[in-house]
Amino acid sequence: MRRLKSFLPSVILFLLVNGLFVFFEHELAGYGFSIQVLLWGNVFLFGLSIISFLLQQKAAKSTSPQLIVRYFYISFLVKLVLVATIALIYAKTATKVNRASVIACMVFYMVYTFIEISMLLKAGKQKNA
Predict the structure, then answer these.
(1) CA-to-CA dists, residue 28 to 24, 25, 44, 76, angstroms
(2) Between vectors from CA 37 to CA 28 and to CA 24, what angle results, nearest 5°?
(3) Count of CA atoms in the C-beta half-sphere (13 A) of 123
(4) Cα–Cα distance measured from residue 70 to residue 95, given in angstroms and rounded to the nearest whole number
(5) Are the C-beta atoms of residues 56 and 75 closer than 8 Å to each other?
(6) 3-class secondary structure per residue, the chain
């Protein structure tokens, strides 16, 4: 239960952002955003965030600080490589790349990473206390 509770901010962000995308679909399209790219990008980043968070939670149970740092960097690099790969695939397969939506997805990547790190730091403080 604690594991799910610590991941709750990411779930709330995911549901809130997707809800806003659907609710403001016409307004966002008017500003040049592709709703499909935003929705799928958010789903992909949320999935990566779940996997990364679970890996880092597993490492946090270890008593070795080197293992914790190793898992953090591995998850960070894997996420970065996968996001870059998906962006390149999108750029090669799309007839017209929607730059505004790709930049918005990059912002979501940073927000999910920030939430993930803050939750892990909070869990680490509770473990040490």
Answers:
(1) 6, 5, 20, 30
(2) 25
(3) 21
(4) 39
(5) yes
(6) CHHHHHCHHHHHHHHHHHHHHHHCHHHHHHCCCCHHHHHHHHHHHHHHHHHHHHHHHHHHCCCCHHHHHHHHHHHHHHHHHHHHHHHHHHHHHCCCCCHHHHHHHHHHHHHHHHHHHHHHHHHHHHHHC
Spatial CB neighbours of 62, under 8 Å, sequence gap ≥ 6: 68
Q: Which residues contact 29 (CB under 8 A, 6 or more apart)?
A: 35
Dump pLDDT digits (tens) for 68-102.
Answer: 888 888 888 888 899 999 999 999 998 999 999 99
